[in-house]
Design a protein that fits this description.
The chain is about 65% helix and about 5% strand. The protein has about 425 residues and is mainly alpha-helical. Strand 3 (about 250-255) and strand 4 (about 260-265) form a beta hairpin. The termini are far apart. Residues about 420-435 have low confidence and may be disordered.
Length: about 425
Amino acid sequence: MAVPAFTPVVVAAAALAILQCAGSIGLEALNQRHARAHAHSIPEAFKNSLSPETHRRSVEYTLAKGRLSIVSAILDLVVFLAVIASGILPASAGWMALDSASSPWWAATWLLGVGAALSLPSLPLEWWAQFRLEARFGFNTTTPGTWVADRIKGLALSAALGLPLLALLLFLVRAMGSLWWLWGFVAIAAFQVLVLFLAPAVILPLFNKFTPLPDGPLKDRLLALGERTGFHAATIQVMDGSRRSRHANAFFTGFGRFRKIALFDTLVEQLTPEEIEAVLAHEIGHHQRRHIPRRLATGMLMMLAGFGAMGWLATQPWFAAGFGFGPGTGIAPTLLLFALVSPAALFWASPISHHWSRVHEFEADGYACNAMGSPVPLVTALRKLSEKNLSNLTPHPWYSAFHYSHPTLVEREAALLARRGSGTSVDASGPAIPPTH
């Protein structure tokens, strides 16, 4: 196997990956130090509602996840450097006789195969996270058989959807000339919208069981909320989230008459009907404030920029050649290399996207507060979910900026209670407490 020279583009890619790894480890170290510093001091707003034992376990959970994240970051860096420096990628293209005349299906098979191979080194850590870390803190309910079946289903789904999509993209490269990247963007964007429609009925049931929410006070309450807010769904269903984890959530998928509200069975078990209504009101707030189409539009613009970058790189002979690919291997290596290198650069822009995501969460919280007529149900729901999930109440601000798409519980509660003035108090399995200022 020929080892590629350390060309400027290889050195630049390695430097980006090393900087990302160093940034990730540095942030984890800051967050762990911050967690240890607050390990023996419960935030003032929660001293009457959070037990010292739960707070201690949340700190331990934060530290354990942080240590695993550091190992994962180092492993990802080692794999990336080995892949770009060893010559394995151009060698694999040679083994499959990949060239510019290869069938789009053949080149797509190479791309999918390389992607699957690159995911293998992380499987042991994923197993450890599920059956050691999550199990240690009482969250794991997944069996080894379900875990393996999920990976097999995911691989099969990637092949079933990804192979024809990649083949179409490579066909457009040949058929559309220099503007292939624009047509490629249109094709991928249309596919993503199609998946949003197909996911509730076709994709999600492959992994989870959905059953209609039984008739009763909870269903009546949620349907009344939908009527009150003008949010109409085809059905309200309960998902067997407890089959894999004790974490809880709620979401809705689809559009128009295909819209489906899904509640984790763990959520139904952990919260009161009023609190579940408040959580659903928050999700409805995302819809009514048009956060979903705005996020979709932002994602589309970013994807268009990515395709534009790929279109430009495809015209630069130094890019693929710098990683050891010959001039006749076609455009598939450029697509693969861009997918491998771009995350290291985008990592540094994550605070921007997370900032706007947190803004949307505050807006959805405000909508839920208005829909419920009080912040109390959502506050108590968030407290319970935070306690059950052993959430970190005191993340380092820099870590939160890079990793948190949601505001912290302290921030969300302060904003909610401020909507009702300084006299608001909340009973959350403990004495009434003053609002956070």
